[in-house]
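It is worth pausing here to work through a concrete case rather than discussing structure prediction in the abstract. The textbook approach is simple: state the sequence, then state the predicted structure, then interpret. We follow exactly that order.
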Amino acid sequence: MHRMAQLIDAPSLATQPTRVVAGRSRCGEAVGTCCKEGVMFYVFGFERVGVVMGDLYFIDPDPLPGQGGAERGVRLEVRLVERGDLKGSIYSARPIVVDRPVWRADLLEAVAGPPGSLDRAHHHPAFQGWEPGPRCFVEGLATRPLDWVGARLSDLDALLEQAGMAAVDVGTGDTEALRQAVPEILDALGKLLDRVKAGQLASVSSDEESASARIGWL
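Step two, the predicted structure:
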């Protein structure tokens, strides 16, 4: 049996009491910069694979041509997950490990541009350990992000193959479990994108220009 766990935004707790409240954190990885509201983090967990997503404010200290300046948006990753052993009695909380990445989609845009443009949207088909490969810009990701991401999540075997992994590395059951959960994942993704566009997330106040920043869970 495949179980799915989700972390959600606190205001929805009253209408969906069976789910877990998402964490908010104070942030300030860039000197002189802080978040206006904190950061959001969603997790959809299955047997060996999970989908994580959260808002992101990012400044690359060594950008490629045309990719300089602050970026904002939503980062979504397929990760390996692991249930840890109980540390106490049968009633104790179980450790949950969100482990190494399989695939990443960065639905980003230049802060200097119009909200919702997603003009920096790209994905990383493969990682070397924890390090992503180059940014891969593809048609449709910026203009139809939910459809594009949904199609990729609906074919976990293809994502694993691109990442140099096989379905047997994670178990065959997660492919169908993830496919069935895609509508719910996209609903959460759409809400995050809307909040970024509205300036409620991935928005910072700064007293000075930062040369580097990475503000978010992911």
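Step three, interpretation. Residues 5-35 have pLDDT under 50 and may be disordered. The chain is about 20% helix and 30% strand.
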